Amino acid sequence: MLAWAKHRWESFGRLIDGTPLLLIENDKQNTEVMNNESIQQEDIAAMARDCGLKRLNQLAYAVLERNGEISVIQKDKA
Amino acid sequence: MPPLQKPVEDSIGKVNDELAVGSDLPFQRRWWRFERMVWIVFLAMIAADLLGFFGRGYFATASLHPADGAIDVKYERIERVSTPSILTIRFGNKAIRDGRIQLWASEDLVSRLGAERVIPQPSTSAIGEGGISYTFTATTTPATVQFALEPPRIGICHLLLRVPGFHSVKLSVLVMP
What we know:
- Chain A is of the alpha+beta class.
- Chain A has helices at residues 2-8, 10-17, 31-36, 41-50; strands at 21-25, 28-29, 59-64, 70-74.
- Helix content of chain B is 18%, strand content 40%.
- Chain B has two helices and 14 strands; from the N terminus they run E-E-H-E-E-E-E-E-E-H-E-E-E-E-E-E.
- Chain B has helices at 25-51, 108-111; strands at residues 14-15, 19-20, 61-64, 71-76, 78-80, 85-91, 96-97, 100-106, 117-119, 124-128, 131-137, 143-149, 155-162, 169-176.
- At the A-B interface, strand 1 and strand 3 of A face helix 1 of B.
């Protein structure tokens, strides 16, 4: 029923699941999001390592997903 | 009709025109504010509970010391329905006459506060004047009587206690669910 309501009303889905939030965007950390969601830089670094990246400055974006996981996107290789 | 008929729409909001993430920070800020308010309400409720505003705590316990010195009363001003508690009445020297203490209590003591036992047992009890008159055998002070209460229903109860010849003492008790 909850799944149906979330599918039916987008705003209800946002209320229940939240929205994805940017943690890192173009070499800048969003400290407001990180503080409010109690995310540490080490959490992002762990996910970056998990994706085979050595340093945080290799990240173009880090996103806190609705399910609580962190996904990272690597910078384009020039 | 083939099941795969709807084309993929790229309707999710983008960051820097490249990352489809659908982030909504203004909504999230409102949510964080709401979360903080809920935390404050929860903490206030826990603090109120620990302080006795919902019964069994510092603010739930009350005592009355009328100037005439006939009785001192210690009671719970916030009771919980169907939960046992004790109403303690300590009599002064003036209340003892001819080796006896008389106490009149309004009928709310039984009907609203659910008095189940009197400790010690009174030598006599009689109904009348809208209440119950108890007589206890007594020698000297300290002389204390306890009523075991178990309120049967919620509401505000006003109990009157009186030793004949002295002023009445009025107690107000809130019985919570």
